[in-house]
Amino acid sequence: MTTPPLLGDHSRGGRTRAREVVFRAVFEADLSHDDVLEVLELSLGRFRFTSDGRDFAVRLAQGVVAHREEADRLLSVLLENWALERVSTVARAILRVAIAEMLAVPETPVLVVLNEAVRLSNRYGEEGAGSFVNGILDAAARRIRPGSLGEAPAP
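The chain above was modelled as a monomer; its predicted structure follows.
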């Protein structure tokens, strides 16, 4: 089993790098059926992080674990007529990480979560993955954080 290679070091070990490493851990754990936090722990030693980046990676991975069932239930609703198991492993991992960030890290703006997820999807996913992930996460954001995308909250 191999995990996708990291993107260039444009983030210098901050939150962008942390999201990518957490995505890789979720991806690998999904394939190997290992614990996400254990996979992350092994990964953290291989990359340089700022102290904020490392702390954020751990917090985000803990959010993925804590909110996994909630995220999967939401994804099952949003993937109308499409089973979550049929979504590519890459897209599924990115969606789980992004939804966990919306739920567990409320200070991260929704647009940042969406942009980072689309960036990962365009880099690691198949053709059209970015648009697919963006559409699902847009709908998820409207449920998780109503009004966060500039729309009027439901009455």
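Residues 15-144 form a domain with the N-utilizing Substance Protein B Homolog; Chain A fold (CATH 1.10.940.10).
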